[in-house]
Specification:
By secondary structure, the protein is mainly β. It is built from one helix and 14 strands, in the order E-E-E-E-E-H-E-E-E-E-E-E-E-E-E. The protein has a six-stranded antiparallel beta sheet with strand order 2-1-13-12-11-10, with no helix packed on it. Strand 8 and strand 9 form a beta hairpin. The chain is globular and about 50 Å long. The relative contact order is 0.25.
Length: about 220
């Protein structure tokens, strides 16, 4: 449900399938408030490699000598030394070749609350605090980051980790209402600009269906 009573939380998952993601995409906008510090980790499951920022979005500086990736980024001419989605060995990239357009946002319009993180849009915005939980490190298989908005009314936790398939990494998204009042019409969005190597700017996006019951909007626009 997209209604979250006071002091309760909603949980759902999306999957990172090699170079594919299931996403939920409502729209929102707010006045700008920025937090600029960036730090991140690179994790994987043997076949999929993710670069995760502390703010829950992807795209972090390249880290070599893990998951079969060489010391120097083999795609540096295309990716400027950034990891978001890679295959093992870092030989193929999903979004890094263009702008760093991968991120997320959450909004509670009736409360005027929201926050987001996407480096391509100059974010993060309205984030008051973010931290990795212990155990998140380069070369690991899991990472958890907890993000709260500037007013402390809402908290989003991302639990990134492997699944039973070596070709799938998943992110469990937990949204918590800390405001002391019921949230109605909670909107969550995840976007990316696909630039899959080696044909970075010549591709298409397919949507093959979802069992989501509260999907407000989705798009096969690879330049979201």
């Amino acid at each position: 449900s997209n209604t979250i009573p006071s002091l309760l939380k909603n949980k759902f998952k999306y999957h990172l399938i090699r170079l594919t993601m299931n996403i939920i995409l409502p729209l929102f906008s707010f006045n700008i408030h920025r937090v600029t510090a960036q730090t991140g980790v690179v994790i994987g499951n043997g076949e999929v490699v993710l670069g995760i920022n502390i703010f829950g979005d992807l795209n972090v500086p390249y880290v070599g000598d893990i998951f079969g990736c060489p010391t120097t980024d083999p795609l540096i001419a295309n990716t400027s030394g950034i990891i978001a989605f890679r295959t093992a060995g870092c030989e193929f990239a999903a979004t890094e070749a263009g702008t760093l357009s991968e991120g997320w946002g959450i909004a509670v319009p009736d409360q005027g609350i929201g926050m987001s993180a996407n480096q391509a849009t100059g974010g993060p915005f309205f984030i008051g605090g973010a931290s990795f939980e212990a155990g998140a490190s380069d070369g690991g298989s899991t990472a958890t980051t907890i993000i709260s908005n500037t007013g402390g009314q809402i908290q989003v936790t991302y639990n990134f980790g492997p699944t039973s398939s070596s070709q799938v990494m998943q992110a469990e998204v937990v949204i918590e209402n800390l405001a002391g009042t019921t949230f109605n019409n909670v909107l969550y969005r995840r976007v990316m600009n696909w630039d899959v190597t080696p044909t970075e700017f010549n591709g298409y996006t397919s949507i093959v269906g979802t069992d989501a019951t509260d999907l407000t909007f989705s798009s096969n626009n690879g330049n979201c």
